Amino acid sequence: MSPMLDISRTSQLPPELWEDIIKYSTPSSLRACLSVSRLFHDLAVRFLFSTIHIQFGALSPHGLSPEEHERRVARNCSIGSDILCYIASKPSFAVVVKKIVVHSYMVGPYVFDRQLLIDAVSKLSNLSCFVWYGVASSVSATLVLNRPDLDPANGDIRIPLASSLPLRRIQNLRSLSLEWWADELEHEDPELELTEVRDMIEANTDTLQELEICAPHCRSFPLRTLRNLVYLHLIDAPLDNIETVFRYGDQLEALSIVPDVHCVQELFSVIASHPKRLPRLSSFKLIQSDDDEWRPDVSDMAALAEFFRTKNMRRLDCKLCVDCTTSLPFLQMLQNLKNLQVLGIGLISPTFVQNDSLSFTNYIPKNISALRLRLGYDGTIIGRDVILHLWDHFEGLRYAHIVVSTVPDITLAMLISSNSKQDLELIAYNGRVFPLERTIDNVCVGKSWSECKTTTRAVEDFGNEDWEWLSRHYMVYW
């Protein structure tokens, strides 16, 4: 925003045009707009505070003493209470809030804090998205009871299941994330909850486009009836009904699977039996647990490669318990994916040497825009020159998530300066996320994200849906 702006002339343009201009401003520019004029203030508020984050308690980061943690909890609760009271008392402010995100890390009743949240949400007439991270609470049930009409045209809700929610009351949702949080309020009747989940999904058959569902509810969702479902995420999935997804999910464009331990073998069997299924698939994510004792062999990786060979893949992320040699059929297939823009590869191998790096550079496209690499585990031996050779292969990268914690004598600054062909804007490196700022002659590493932001990262934090998708379901240090 120009400091020489003539305030007297702002009224010569209609507010709608100013709104179109201001919405592209950076957060710092939006904050500056708050003190320019009443018009600019009102317009900036719509974008600065359309999403509100509320914290109950705090995460317990490593290295923080119990006393410091208690002070952080008290500070977060105080700030959260102030925000909620302001929403409840200022209708002109409440009307601009469209999304509320709760970070709940307290176990116990905490009646006062939760009642403040209930009162505030009841005032949010334009609320379209409600997201809950952390410990489940009976407050969720009250919120849904108060807001059964949550965004009828564009609903988006992420809620904990272990909170006795009146699930059948929620309708007209576009996006639904059903999480599983173990706490003192788990459902007394698991079979009844399974029925409620199924009834809730069926009540949203005509509008639901995206579904994230966790074990044990993966067995209960009626995929055959979800005609408009295009994004499906199965978390901690037992996979005993995974064949149903391949048989009846031909409309799916994106599929993410984080299987339960010891279930990946069944998935590979289904993939090998149905290589032509899911013809519209363009995004796929598979995360195998490091604790899984089953290891895919070369024939399994060849079957996986054949499955993708017939798809128009744009985003692909596979973390598997394989070494570089075993993954070769998969790596060779990547060169045939002409529209691939987002790629994640995770391996488990005792070593990663020059020949392994050549396998990557020979087959992985150079021009992908987002990359996630995990080249082993804590004991993997990786040479610095091997990593720098591999890193130099990529051109035009804008986001990277790199886990190479055992590489000696390599720093983030060294990694960034070693490749001038990239346009990196954000990098997650060995457990921390750093924004990058570019000048004509230099690249500066900004302040790392906070632990809370790193843990609960969302599309708004990344500013890019592909980057959030690539990091989804991972801890940053994985």
TrEMBL record:
For this protein, the record's SUPFAM superfamilies field holds: F-box domain, RNI-like
Chain segments annotated as coiled-coil in the UniProt record: none
Which Pfam families does the record match to this protein?
F-box
Task: Give residue ranges for domain F-box.
Answer: 11-45
List the Gene3D superfamilies hit by this protein, alphabetically: Ribonuclease Inhibitor
Please identify the protein, giving its name as recorded. F-box domain-containing protein
